[in-house]
């Protein structure tokens, strides 16, 4: 359970399930970056961290399935819920061996754009694994209508799908936002913030280039996260002469302190299943400026709209959606946001929209999904 949106969802849910529930957290990799409540029993299935390569994992999979089914039998497990690709594959194969357990897989990611960046053979393999997973589960839980649409229309997955949005722990977020961190905000400056690891699909370069186009000396850009692309982005910041304006804050256990004191959250992802950080920003009453990428940002910021993308800047109740991978449009939208005369309307609407994702509402839907014992 390294840092990631899907993992954070599990932490949030586990903390809101009853302490007398019989809950097991089965890990394929012995990494836990989040706080797991004491009533949840942690079970390391195997140290699969040495088998990161997909083919190696597949070859090792029968052994893992055997161990997992043995564990399920010994503990009288009735429902097995998995998230992330390797765990979903394990769940799907386990179903083929024992369909008396209700196997549920969770899909948090839009795949079409992601797969398009892979070599043809790798893409072919991953597409077939995706179809296998979602054909060998009693149910697929999706975090957005867009993902469900893609699974059905592009990958022809026919199994039942249950839409349950990501939950946010509003009390914890707001409480932590009030805890002082070792960073002093200057009231004379305007702060934009991006929270997300430095992975290629997060497209930090787009954000840095758009920020440079603004040419606003009193603006600061806060980047929270770590990852493989961080050094490349630092070099780009240096090339643009923005070392004093773009601040790399690293991984932060309490990003809410920074979000709450920033002017606006900016998200530049090329794809997002739903985006926890948008939900967290709304919970803190912050306007959001996001790329109109598949699928999550649009579903959050412009509910009820079709899962499509636009080539124009779109005003939403909580901020702006901008064309994907377009730095000039992003810069224009940032300038527009900075000059927006009714920013308080965005802030009020943000708090209202956040209510739809509060864990007190979402946890019950997960409990209903898990308690359905019909295989």
Mean pLDDT: 89
**Low-confidence blocks of residues:** none
Amount of beta strand:
15-25%
Largest sheet: 7 strands, mixed
How many extended strands?
Answer: 13
Estimated structural class: alpha/beta
Residue share in helix:
40-55%
SSE order and pairing:
Elements (H helix, E strand, L loop, with lengths): L4 H10 L8 E5 L12 E5 L9 H21 L4 E5 L1 H13 L4 E6 L4 H5 L3 H16 L3 E4 L2 H9 L7 E3 L6 H8 L12 E6 L8 H11 L4 E6 L5 H10 L6 E5 L5 H5 L3 E4 L8 H8 L4 E4 L4 H6 L12 E3 L2 E4 L4 H13 L3 H12 L4 H13 L4
Parallel strand pairs: 1-2, 3-4, 4-5, 5-6, 7-8, 7-10, 8-9, 10-11, 11-13
Antiparallel strand pairs: 12-13
Give a structural overview.
By secondary structure, this protein is α/β, with parallel strands linked by helices. It is 43% helix and 16% strand. It contains 15 helices and 13 strands. The protein has helices spanning 5-14, 54-74, 85-97, 112-116, 120-135, 145-153, 170-177, 204-214, 230-239, 256-260, 276-283, 296-301, 327-339, 343-354, 359-371; strands spanning 23-27, 40-44, 79-83, 102-107, 139-142, 161-163, 190-195, 219-224, 246-250, 264-267, 288-291, 314-316, 319-322.
Overview in brief:
The protein is α/β, with parallel strands linked by helices.
Name some characteristics of this structure.
single chain, 375 residues, alpha/beta, 7-stranded mixed beta sheet, 4-stranded parallel beta sheet
